[in-house]
Inverse folding.
């Protein structure tokens, strides 16, 4: 996938790339405003310069489409992408209890490193991820207060839920030329309930009545580790939406804000750039068992002709 490799190299050599410290403690080299583009008619955009796990990518996408937030569901399907994260509210509750237990009246009885280790351990053990991507796609809280019959002044008021994904599909079927077919995961008022503030925070589909294009926007893009997964995930989403809408999948476009490489990934990046890409594989969503995108399962996918170079291991920044 030459478009991906070209961006990798561009981040390394661009005069506009800058070194940045990060919350993870590992610096990055970052480039602002980068666009990735791929024509789906040329093959499926699954990286061939290192081995990629299509099942894990598909499982996470099903997780989002279903609007789930318990990472145990992912782990049961051998998808470990979210293992190190958890709902910060849940984490804070458990860490606060630990700190109280391990403090005297005047001072803590632990070191900063011990506290960090406890936080990481709690994040691994806590299954709830909070109101992340798929929850926002399927359960966007609106400002319309629910009214309880017979108790209009009740203080126990809730909020209505809006299903963005279902709404976009229904409107696209009525008018595929609509320019408002957009789904957002960015909720500033709920960031403290998200295991990770959404990196890819919105996506939009556009059509001329025959072809379907998908554009997604990402605020912070770890291009070596996260980039290939995001590209493949949105590629599958485009295939699913095109099948649902009886359109032909065409352009897949990713628009990045801060697009970066971690400095402890440079060796792996150069290794990947030294490899010659193979021809792209094909991904098929079979007709058999198809009951629509909302009922799709990650196992309902066929990967054909995938030739790849060996896997490249790199540490993830938490």
């Amino acid at each position: 996938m030459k478009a991906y490799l070209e961006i990798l190299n561009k981040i390394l050599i661009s005069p506009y790339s800058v070194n940045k410290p990060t919350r993870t403690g590992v610096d990055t080299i970052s480039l602002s405003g980068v666009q990735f583009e791929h024509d789906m008619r040329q093959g499926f955009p699954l990286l061939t310069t290192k081995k990629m796990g299509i099942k894990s990518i598909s499982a996470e996408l099903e997780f989002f489409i279903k609007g789930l937030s318990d990472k145990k569901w992912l782990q049961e399907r051998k998808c470990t992408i979210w293992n190190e994260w958890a709902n910060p509210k849940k984490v804070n509750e458990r860490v606060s209890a630990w700190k109280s237990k391990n403090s005297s009246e005047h001072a803590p009885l632990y070191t900063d490193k011990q506290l960090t280790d406890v936080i990481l351990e709690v994040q691994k053990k806590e299954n709830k991820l909070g109101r992340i991507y798929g929850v926002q796609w399927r359960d966007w809280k609106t400002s319309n207060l629910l009214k309880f019959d017979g108790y209009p002044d009740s203080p126990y008021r809730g909020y209505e839920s809006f299903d963005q994904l279902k709404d976009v599909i229904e409107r696209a079927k009525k008018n595929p030329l609509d320019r408002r077919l957009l789904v957002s995961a960015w909720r500033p008022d709920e960031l403290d309930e998200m295991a990770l503030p959404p990196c890819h925070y919105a996506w939009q589909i556009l059509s001329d009545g025959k072809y379907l294009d998908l554009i997604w926007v990402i605020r912070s893009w770890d291009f070596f580790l996260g980039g290939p997964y995001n590209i493949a995930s949105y590629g599958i989403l485009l295939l699913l939406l095109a099948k649902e809408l009886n359109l032909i999948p065409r352009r897949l476009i990713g628009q990045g804000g801060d697009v970066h490489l971690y400095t402890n990934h440079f060796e792996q990046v150069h290794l990947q750039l030294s490899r010659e890409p193979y021809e792209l594989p094909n991904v098929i969503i079979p007709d058999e068992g198809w009951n629509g995108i909302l009922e799709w399962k990650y196992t309902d996918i066929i990967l054909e002709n995938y030739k790849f170079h060996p896997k490249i291991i790199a540490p993830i920044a938490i």
